[in-house]
Amino acid sequence: MTIDVTPKVSAYAAPDRDYRVPYLPVGSKVGAAELEAVSQVLRSGATLSGGAWRARFEEDFRSYVGTPYALSTTSGTVSLELAIHLLDLRPGDEVVVTPQTYQATLQPLFQYPQVRVRFCDVSPDTMNMDPVRLEELVNHRTRAVILVHYGGLPADMQAITAIARAHDAVVIEDSAHAIGSSYQGRRPGSLGDIGCFSFHSSKNITTLGEGGMLTLHNEEWAQRIERLRGNETDAHFVPHLHRFGDSAEALPGALYPGNAYTHDCAALLRHGTNATLSEAAAAVGSVQLAALPELVARRRLIASRLREVLENHADCVELPAEPAGAEQSHHLFTFFVRGPRKIDRDRLVNELRERGVQMILRYFPLHLTPEWRARSHYYGECPVAERLWFHEQVNLPCHPGLSDKETELLCDLLDDALRTVRRDRKQKPC
Which residues pair with 336 in a beta bridge? Predict the structure, then answer.
């Protein structure tokens, strides 16, 4: 049986045309090593859920990130949901968030209508949370700061964590873009209190298309996540011995009596869920993690070629600034249309698209979406993020699936598009 894997509808592929330089929906590469790992799992006869491969992947990830705990989940979205649950939010609490991210980062906060969500504007040089603006927003009610390492470029964690610590606020790092990055010798996901990773097909490594990870320093939180992802409730229990008729204890081999004989539930915090990463997915994750240096090196090589082109147009474009001691994984390649020779961003994007470069801009400022506007957010709340999105930001394809030939073609098309827009600007001054 042959399965047609051609994308029918995709956020990464426009169905109206073929692109000379595509923005592939696959952010990694898989091959013989991944196939062999899956084959080993299937041939082993062992459990396909919650077994030795998951334990190995989590241990590998703990070691890589540098945290005492790493717990895998079925997706990055689930990791974020569980992380936000650990905050134990109450009415009147506040959470400071970034507007420049995918919707999954913040969607769990809709469960808390009596919690105030405050959008912190981004730095014009990085698109990451601006510590200066953060200082203005945090107060004694701030329970957490949720940030993103946009495109794999680490946020200014020294400043952000100092501000959060001064207000006893938890720092959650959405590190979905940042596996392979580093900040002052440490890995994203270990810099705050909780790290959340995604292994979606588009990310720098994958676990068969979906998967996630939580990295933590706090043992109690790790235990709570362990229970929740295994379909147990997160609750406050108090000791109380019970008999059920003639039954004073569970028989050996009885499934899931848990603490039914020994405790009462004083308060139920959250229901559990099945967020168990499959053994096949975990096996692929371990192989992909081992290949990460090679995958990131390829991204950096492509990014260096793109930088060379952009440096020839430095009077009208600008690259993001990297914090001191930071190395980025280039999950996204972003630059800004700005400088003394002003050109039109939309015109440049259209010129690139017409030349056959698939253009996808990430991400629309979340505070302007209908659901967040319904919670009293508005245009003008984050003017820097708005200016970047509507006028300056450009994302180019930058992934290991680009061949050398495609990379050089992309560089040529980028240079040609910039020259065309610059020439037309001279002919028709603004």
Answer: 318, 393
